[in-house]
Write a structure and sequence with these properties.
By secondary structure, this protein is of the alpha+beta class. It is built from 1 helix and 9 strands; from the N terminus they run αβββββββββ. The chain has one helix at about 1-25, and strands at about 30-35, 40-50, 55-60, 65-70, 80-90, 95-110, 115-120, 125-130, 135-140.
Length: about 150
């Protein structure tokens, strides 16, 4: 009778240990995104979406030129779609211009990586890049649908 209890108790402990290990392995990874104001920028508000869900907002201005956020990955996902949307106000030829910027792409195993939010094409394109490992983020040119302003 004692050996049955000991076996049952051992099996129960093993089962609990396996469940804890499985739960820990399913915890979402994280990555960081840094957004930095360019010298010609006056202000910037940008939003990062993963799989259509808002996960971070960055607010930069004359008093805050850089912001870094840690982003959790959706549990069990290693490749995720992203969209980066924003409004960037720049000084151009002595006049302020505000540009609506957006793009989308996909992140491939970004856990542990640091990505930069980068603007190009005269502040009309906006995307994520990892300069140490360019394969982490792919970028599709064009406006991201999730960034479209609601019309009513």
């Amino acid at each position: 009778m004692k050996s049955k209890r000991a076996f049952f108790f051992s099996a129960l402990l093993l089962g609990c240990a396996l469940q804890i290990a499985q739960a820990q392995s399913e915890l979402p990874g994280t990555f960081t995104v840094t957004d930095e104001r360019a010298s010609e920028e006056i202000s910037e508000v940008s939003r990062l979406y993963l799989d259509g869900n808002l996960v971070a907002t960055f607010r930069l201005g004359l008093s805050k030129s850089r912001e870094t956020k840690t982003i959790p990955l959706p549990a069990g996902r290693y490749d995720v779609d992203y969209a980066l949307c924003g409004e960037i106000t720049i000084m151009h030829n002595g006049h302020q211009e505000t540009h609506q910027v957006s793009s989308e792409g996909q992140l491939h195993h970004p856990e542990g990586h640091t990505l930069d939010a980068v603007g190009s094409n005269n502040f009309t394109d906006f995307f994520l890049v990892d300069y140490n490992d360019p394969s982490v983020a792919t970028h599709r040119h064009g406006r991201a649908a999730v960034c479209a302003s609601p019309s009513s």
